[in-house]
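Ops channel
N.P.: pipeline sanity check, posting one input/output pair.
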């Protein structure tokens, strides 16, 4: 859990993560201009091999849902690194990254 939070906050800044306390998932608020959570999830999966759920599928558009249940520590580290790379690209390039 903490590795995923650090990956998000080091890339997007503080205040972008909700959940995780007593849950098996985090909600991550996407950068401004990248609110199409369905497209972001497709792009993260295709380009960065990160599996997430669009927040709009859970009644929370503009966020992505990341599950960390049953994830071995070494796999969590690897996933956090891929997530960080994807979010950094999204933060730097904005909507253009998704094309």
């Amino acid at each position: 859990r903490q590795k995923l939070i650090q990956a998000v906050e080091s890339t997007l800044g503080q205040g972008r993560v909700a959940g995780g306390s007593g849950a098996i998932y985090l909600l991550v608020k996407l950068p401004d201009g990248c609110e199409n959570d369905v497209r972001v999830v497709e792009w993260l999966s295709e380009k960065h091999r990160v599996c997430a759920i669009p927040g709009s599928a859970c009644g929370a558009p503009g966020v992505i849902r990341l599950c960390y249940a049953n994830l071995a520590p070494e796999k969590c580290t690897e996933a956090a690194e891929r997530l960080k790379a994807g979010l950094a690209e999204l933060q730097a390039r904005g909507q253009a990254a998704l094309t």
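N.P.: looks fine end to end. The helical segments are 2-12, 37-48, 73-93.
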